[in-house]
Design goal:
Layout lengths: L1 E4 L8 E4 L3 H22 L21 E5 L5 E3 L2 E3 L2 H12 L7 E5 L5 H14 L4 E3 L9
Parallel strand pairs: 3-6, 6-7
Antiparallel strand pairs: 1-2, 3-4, 4-5
Helix pairs in contact: 2-3
């Protein structure tokens, strides 16, 4: 803090001024630090985000393809499964084959999750180890 006594005019007048430049510099540095650290603090829940990758899959004749249409109907290749029990029985027979074939699920994009969930549950009950989802790649250039 500086205090200057005026040199002209009234000799008794005291002029006092505070140099605020260092104060502004410190405030700007603190502002930058807060702007950098706030995004790190707000996303504090540790999660592993999925990584998208293109994987070329080979369709083998022993693979089982199960389809789910928009209404939630389940099909074993082209044969409609009337009850979840029918699907579980077929999957149990497949699960005994050595090596166990992969079950590939083709779920319609507009289908509700309930149909696909029934297929996943049936695979779990039957003891199927490998389950995959068949998707279409996005169009090129978009």
């Amino acid at each position: 803090m500086a205090m200057t006594v005026g040199s002209g005019g009234d000799e008794d007048e005291v002029v006092s001024a505070i140099n605020t430049t260092p104060l502004v510099d410190v405030m700007l540095v603190l502002l930058i630090i807060f702007l950098i650290t706030i995004p790190v603090v707000t996303t504090s829940i540790p999660v592993q985000l999925p990584k998208e990758r293109v994987e070329i899959r080979e369709t083998k004749p022993e693979n089982v393809i199960i389809s789910v249409d928009p209404q939630g109907n389940v099909f074993w290749y082209d044969v409609k499964m009337n009850t979840p029990r029918d699907l579980i029985d077929r999957l149990k027979r497949v699960s005994n084959i050595k090596p166990q074939p992969e079950v590939q699920i083709r779920g319609d994009m507009t289908a509700k999750y309930n149909g696909v969930g029934k297929v996943l549950y049936a695979c779990q009950v039957a003891g199927i180890v490998k389950v995959a989802f068949i998707t279409e790649p996005p169009p090129l250039g978009g």
